[in-house]
Design brief:
Layout: E1 6-8, E2 28-30, E3 53-55, H1 66-76, E4 82-83, E5 86-87, H2 90-99, H3 109-115, H4 121-126, H5 128-142, H6 166-182, H7 187-219
Helix pairs in contact: 1-2, 2-7, 5-6
Length: about 220
């Protein structure tokens, strides 16, 4: 039923969400009191860019830490407006980027081959263009957006130097990926990024202030 918009499946002993990935018109989904074992099943809901209401409570995947569970779900599905009959705020979505756990799609041979764009594993690992693609498309997937093809990325003539600091290379590529992603975000999505960035800067400022205070005390 690819055109269904509202689906109620509460108390049906459901343990997998795989079959819902093709219901692209789905706006409201009710899954209370089922047998969903892990939040990794939410990766099947990422393509549902119209999904705004999700009721997942009373499943094994919810665990005992309600706050962490909520942050993880909102990090995976930031377009939700209501989760477990509770409205989602912009502040929650922004915090979820920092506090929620990352949900990864189970990997397989075909998926690995696709993510490497036909390159051998060793070559793909060192290819900076491939790294940018993976980082950008990973974020786009979390936002329910289509992945970009290789020709949308700026060409890079050579691989990173083996002498270059690897953490620095990774940070530079991550920044490139974020900047590429910003071009395709709408106003609401940019607001989410703004809130997350502001929260991160506030945390960094507090950490820097604490470090300077500690250094001054040691000097005195």
């Amino acid at each position: 039923m690819p055109n269904i918009e509202v689906l109620t499946l509460s108390a049906n002993y459901i343990s997998s969400l795989t079959s819902l990935a093709s219901c692209l018109c789905l706006r409201e989904l009710f899954l209370r009191k089922n047998m969903i074992p892990s939040l990794s099943e939410l990766c099947h809901l990422r393509p549902l860019i119209r999904l705004r209401v999700l009721w997942l409570a009373e499943n094994p995947c919810c665990g005992m830490d309600h706050s962490q569970y909520r942050m993880t779900v909102l990090r995976c599905l930031p377009r939700l407006q209501k989760l477990d009959n509770q409205s989602v705020t912009e502040d929650e979505v922004a915090r979820a980027v920092l506090e929620g756990e990352e949900i990864t799609t189970p990997s397989g041979d075909a998926q690995n081959q696709l993510s490497n764009n036909g390159l051998p594993d060793s070559e793909a690992e060192n290819d900076p263009l491939n790294y940018n693609m993976e980082e950008t498309n990973k974020i786009r997937e979390e936002l329910g957006m289509k992945p970009l093809s290789r020709d949308k990325f700026p060409s890079i003539s050579s691989s990173p130097s083996t002498k270059e600091n690897k953490p620095a290379v990774k940070k530079r590529h991550t920044l490139d990926a974020v900047l590429l992603l910003l071009k395709d975000l709408d106003e609401d999505e940019l607001q989410v990024v703004y809130e997350a960035t502001r929260n991160r800067l506030e945390i960094s400022t507090l950490d820097s202030g604490s470090l300077r205070f500690t250094e001054n005390n040691e000097t005195n």
